[in-house]
Amino acid sequence: MFKKDISAGSKSKVKSSAQRGIRAKILEQYPKLEEHIEEIMPKKEQLDLVKLPDRVALYTLGSTPLFFQHMDDPILPHLTIVHKYPDAFPRLRIDRGAIRFVLSGATLMAPGLTSPGGRLPNDPEDPEGRYGKEELEAGEVVVIEAEGKETACMVGVLTVGTAEMKKTKKGQACDAGHYLGDGLWGLTLG
């Protein structure tokens, strides 16, 4: 979505009623953020809406990007939020071979997740359950971690459920919403 460098468009203040609605939608979509929501989006602070190319709305607090949304798609967290609260989002892991493709903006393919270095929910190689016990459905927002790396490298939306991925082991798995080094990551807000 943000392969090229992007520049911020107009910036406007979000009305408090709309801010409450956005906050509620975020908590509905990411219930594990409940205990951190006051740190992320304090009620007394002013949330700003920055318009980006291709009808993307970026919600910021001052110059800190928080969440973004393309038209009526799900609200996705900015990677800075993911890095700060990694346990609040469903996550999957790609193998080493898929890293360069993900960081160049390619659509994540199922082999990157189903190969020996990848991790999906209920993985026998994941005894502590870091990647969850429940299968994820198509359309769910996921955070993608990379084998051998500490922090997440991508946030995207699953195109197929994880149960189907395990069966077919091929095809598209996840659309890239935002990844390390993309235009949104490099965006400077004044």
UniProtKB/TrEMBL annotation:
<dbReference type="InterPro" id="IPR015947">
    <property type="entry name" value="PUA-like_sf"/>
</dbReference>
<feature type="domain" description="PUA">
    <location>
        <begin position="90"/>
        <end position="181"/>
    </location>
</feature>
<keyword id="KW-0963">Cytoplasm</keyword>
<dbReference type="GO" id="GO:0005737">
    <property type="term" value="C:cytoplasm"/>
</dbReference>
<dbReference type="InterPro" id="IPR016437">
    <property type="entry name" value="MCT-1/Tma20"/>
</dbReference>
<dbReference type="GO" id="GO:0003723">
    <property type="term" value="F:RNA binding"/>
</dbReference>
<dbReference type="InterPro" id="IPR004521">
    <property type="entry name" value="Uncharacterised_CHP00451"/>
</dbReference>
<dbReference type="InterPro" id="IPR002478">
    <property type="entry name" value="PUA"/>
</dbReference>
<protein>
    <recommendedName>
        <fullName>Translation machinery-associated protein 20</fullName>
    </recommendedName>
</protein>
<comment type="function">
    <text>Involved in translation.</text>
</comment>
<dbReference type="Pfam" id="PF01472">
    <property type="entry name" value="PUA"/>
</dbReference>
<dbReference type="Pfam" id="PF17832">
    <property type="entry name" value="Pre-PUA"/>
</dbReference>
<comment type="similarity">
    <text>Belongs to the TMA20 family.</text>
</comment>
<dbReference type="GO" id="GO:0001731">
    <property type="term" value="P:formation of translation preinitiation complex"/>
</dbReference>
<dbReference type="InterPro" id="IPR041366">
    <property type="entry name" value="Pre-PUA"/>
</dbReference>
